[in-house]
User: Fold KLF15 factor from Centropus unirufus.
Amino acid sequence: GCGKLYTKNFNLKTHFRRHIGEKPYTCAWPNCGWRFCQSHELSRHERSHSGVKPYQCAACQKKFTRSDNLARHMKIHQG
Assistant:
């Protein structure tokens, strides 16, 4: 195995999906059909279709669809 350890069975099952390629969450947008192992991955992907940008920079008000993109952007404001 990969050696990952989990305290909750749910998290182990979710991780195991990556190993077996199970992707139960499917994008319902027309002509898309992308599939994901985890529901939060689907939610993040759906924002690429909807244009919703819930993460906003406090320094310049620029908005992002993903929290990791905001975190990367925030580095430009650090002196």
Summary: The chain is about 40% helix and 10% strand. The mean pLDDT is 95. The domain at 9-77 is CATH 3.30.160.60 (Double Stranded RNA Binding Domain).
